[in-house]
Amino acid sequence: TQAPVNVTVTGAAGQIGYALLFRIASGQLLGQDVPVKLRLLEIPQAVKAAEGTAMELDDGAFPLLAGIDIFDDPKQAFEGTNIALLVGARPRSKGMERGDLLEANGGIFKPQGEAINAGAADDIKVLVVGNPANTNALIARSHAPDVPADRFTAMTRLDHNRALAQLSKKLGVPVTEIKKLAIWGNHSATQYPSVQHAEVAGKGVEVDQAWLENDFIPTVAKRGAAIIEARGLSSAASAASAAIDHVYTWVNGTAEGDWTSAGVVSDGSYGVAEGLISSFPVTAKNGKYEIVQGLEIDDFSRARIDASVAELVEERDTVQKLGLI
Ligand code: NAX
């Protein structure tokens, strides 16, 4: 049998962590034939709660779960790790400016990037979930110069899945029949969920522009706020599910004739400044995410992509000024 894959999860005692860890332990992250060892990272105050979650993981008697270790030191947590899910982040508190938020998160993602650089396994794959996810990924990546840039990704798969669900309801077709949806730009309210290239049964999708602009796009982009409004808590199980999807696809590939969405390091494609971590339509093959090339971008899409990418540029400039990258 295969040696266990080491999976580090930060923010393990949080609400996404609680949903995510059981899915990983059950084999849904990497496949039903791959044993996993969990390495949980928390801040010291939350280590006890993480131990509680670990007790419940034990109690699941998961056949594929080969061990659980808990750390409050990133250096140890990322030692030898193959997959890193960076979920723990500093949420925006009342009165906090955007710059303060980026700075607080710099304090988390800089040392984590350094620890990944110093100790992670050669095949390390990093998914940043903690917000602001794209820029947190940029910070971590810039402190891991020895790790290939394409190993750092940010999660927009939840946005992608939300878009699939909305379009599925609108068209009355199962989500499995919808191909080539894409999320572009930042994982924020400026994101652009695009149906420009979407297909059902090999044909382009016809929806009216008013529905796109007034319903679909804002519903997808503001779904996080709508969940908080309804549930009193932010999305957790759906976020965990998307993280599972993101890594599973990364490792196992996308289907022929389809793609998905992920925040990946831009190579300058589609006018997105090189080095930004932006969401694109991506395919996965042989353990690599690649930006889908050669798509025609209509004027409406162009303006939406540019607006979201401008926000990413602003975030990058802010963390640059703060000396975080
Ligand atoms: P919680 O507040 O429930 O949990 C976060 C956990 O992270 C806490 O247990 C905290 O102690 C821990 N933590 C804080 N700093 C840490 C550090 N330096 N090292 C290790 N652990 C640390 O938040 P939760 O609801 O689980 O959400 C986690 C993050 O995901 C948030 O930043 C949230 O904004 C983000 N999200 C991202 C989404 C995406 O699509 N990219 C969607 C869902 C979610 O909003």
UniProtKB/TrEMBL annotation:
TM region positions: none
Active site per database record: 187 (proton acceptor)
Annotated function: Catalyzes the reversible oxidation of malate to oxaloacetate.
Pfam family, one: Ldh_1_C
MF-aspect GO terms: L-malate dehydrogenase (NAD+) activity
Swiss-Prot/TrEMBL keywords: NAD, Oxidoreductase, Tricarboxylic acid cycle
Annotated EC: 1.1.1.37
Gene expressing this chain: mdh
Classification lineage: Bacteria, Bacillati, Actinomycetota, Actinomycetes, Pseudonocardiales
Chain coiled-coil ranges: none
Binding-site positions, NAD(+): 11-17, 105, 112, 129-131
Catalysed transformations (reactions): (S)-malate + NAD(+) = oxaloacetate + NADH + H(+)
Domain Lactate/malate dehydrogenase C-terminal: 156-320
Positions bound to substrate: 92, 98, 131, 162
Record keyword NAD present: yes
Domain Lactate/malate dehydrogenase N-terminal stretches: 6-145
Source organism of the structure: Amycolatopsis mongoliensis
Protein name: Malate dehydrogenase
Biological processes per GO annotation: malate metabolic process; tricarboxylic acid cycle
Similarity-based family: Belongs to the LDH/MDH superfamily. MDH type 2 family.
Keyword Oxidoreductase appears in the UniProt entry: yes
